[in-house]
Request: fold
Amino acid sequence: MQLGAERMSESRPVKPRPKGLLFAPGFLNRPKAVSWLKRVHAWTGFWGALLFVFIGVSGFLLNHRSILLIEAGGIKEVSQVELPVDPNLIADGDALGAWTKDKFSLHGEAFIPAGAETSSAKVLFMGQEVQAVEIWARAFRHPNGILTARYVAGSTSVEVEQQFQNFWGFVKELHKGHGIGVIWVLFMDAMVGALLGMTMTGFLLWSRLHGSRLLAGAIIGTSAVMGIASVAPYLL
Reply:
């Protein structure tokens, strides 16, 4: 009896590994669906290939802007000009920002540069108590540099300074979307959507190789643990 059972087990055919997408529902295992996935994967990659390189390079530079610093994006050129202005148009720092934005047709919101403003207060100068003038400043970021406007309260001119970035600085500012209109933002959103589409279709097509689910889970789990472990110690 035991010998017969062994013979039956030996003659029993081995079940072939299932074909198709291991991690996808049944309707995606149809030939037309698989062909569609391949086309989506290929065309999103072709359409966004150069932008994917741009996102990768600019993201790499931004990731190294403080830790393991990579010197890129320095100031290439600085220019200044004094422009006449009606003092009645600039009552405070916010009015200076609005005037500058309208004058140069800038995008984005103004910010106060660090250490650029001074308040009207009495200070000691050469042993004498004097009244310091109030200085307002507003700056705007744009893809190829920073424009800063400074104004002494009550004066009839505004000092405008333009700092131009080098090429790598331009790349980083494009990634951050500083001083760019909504069309660029939506265009980058489309690129991100294409990248997500490539990720999903690539994962499904990879499953046709019949890789081990355990191995796939281990890779995803290890990546998640490493990401959490690298961030957790710095959380407040």
